[in-house]
């Protein structure tokens, strides 16, 4: 069984954030999650996260999914791996992948291919490298007869500075060799830190095989040290994700204002309009139109549906549904097939049945709405008494008149009607009409008298 150790102890001071650096987001997903997902996708079963700065936030985010160890002092990458010694000793028969938690473009294909190379080459350590056009600031990979060496920028000769193959900061180690070399690291350097890069030199000097695996993904080396760098990562990731969807038959008329998280799935033939933000585990079916100005988070949309100027979080929208414009779907809103939800409507924790129309200016909360129901303009389910929530049930084929207040808990029977302006406080039987209105009183001449008083008052003011 293979291991992974993810280095996530850095503070990222230049980010000016209360969050640890690895929890800052690229396309709405923490950088740490990009890396751990890549490790899992590559088939690595045992993952340990080395935490340091704001360790409690990392614990809260991971919620026990992976093992963690604490690095009490930030004494370098080598020291971070030393902190995971017990984790490594629990499974020494295999290999260990080391990666930085703030390198979101470390991809599973590279991780897996590098491991296969590492095993076939019988290496003690394999460094994942990349060829880049501007290697400034990165450690250069120098190939020698005995293996490889990593030379840091400040230590490079002029000839070495021209080398364009750089270290990604990711390694595959034979776990036994990693455990044997860690005690041999020292802090005799300008930074007074334990460098993980020194393991390559030490293992090579011991006659053990060291090699480089060059990825065809040059973005794998990218990280961010400040907000500008983080913005750059977001820009690169945004276009990469859009290009992936273009290849899968998704239509974009422009990329302006479109942000799609990497875990979002979209089926072919769907059209994404400007100003659309899709995040979390959102799933979009085939032949949909999403946008403009739509934000969907952890929301499922079926085939052939339209989402126009919609904000949805934790919602489900069925097939051939029209939602919008200007609609909010809050968690546990479920809109069934062929329903329509129109402008200025909010739905929360409710089922809207098949073929039901909630056309405009309506709030539906904590309700179970049947099939082919019609909601008139201005309907409100009054579900909260200041302490507790209560449920409304509207059965199939009911008709809710304009400006109806449904005071929960209440049930509207099948094919029942409510008259416009009614406040319904009792259950309505199937097929019945509920009408609740006070008498209309007409006071003749009232408006004329009121206008006369205003005119007289105005004349007095002018006279002053």
How does this model look, in words?
By secondary structure, the protein is an alpha/beta fold. The chain folds into 2 domains: 3-221, Spore Coat Polysaccharide Biosynthesis Protein SpsA, Chain A (Alpha-Beta Complex); 227-434, Hexapeptide repeat proteins (UDP N-Acetylglucosamine Acyltransferase, domain 1, 3 Solenoid). Helices cover 22% and strands 28% of the residues. It is built from 10 helices and 41 strands. The strands form 7 sheets. Strands 12-15-18-21-24-27-30-33-36-39-41 form an 11-stranded parallel sheet, with no helix packed on it. Strand 2 (25-26) and strand 3 form a beta hairpin. The protein is elongated, with a radius of gyration of 31 Å. The N and C termini lie far apart (96 Å). The relative contact order is 0.07. The model has no long low-confidence stretch (mean pLDDT 96). UDP-N-acetyl-alpha-D-glucosamine binds at residues 21, 71, 76-77, 139, 152, 225, 330, 348, 363, 374. Its main location: cytoplasm.
SSE arrangement:
Blueprint: E1 3-8, E2 25-26, E3 29-30, H1 31-41, E4 46-51, H2 55-62, E5 67-70, H3 77-82, H4 85-89, E6 95-100, H5 108-120, E7 125-131, E8 140-144, E9 147-151, H6 158-161, E10 165-174, H7 175-181, H8 198-205, E11 210-214, H9 227-247, E12 251-252, E13 259-260, E14 265-266, E15 271-272, E16 277-279, E17 283-284, E18 289-290, E19 295-297, E20 300-301, E21 306-307, E22 310-313, E23 316-317, E24 322-323, E25 327-329, E26 334-335, E27 340-341, E28 345-348, E29 351-352, E30 357-358, E31 362-365, E32 367-369, E33 374-375, E34 380-382, E35 392-394, E36 399-400, E37 405-407, E38 410-412, E39 417-418, E40 423-424, E41 433-434, H10 446-463
Parallel strand pairs: 1-4, 1-6, 4-5, 7-11, 12-15, 13-16, 14-17, 15-18, 16-19, 17-20, 18-21, 19-22, 20-23, 21-24, 22-25, 23-26, 24-27, 25-28, 26-29, 27-30, 28-31, 29-32, 30-33, 32-35, 33-36, 34-37, 35-38, 36-39, 37-40, 39-41
Antiparallel strand pairs: 2-3, 6-10, 7-10, 8-9
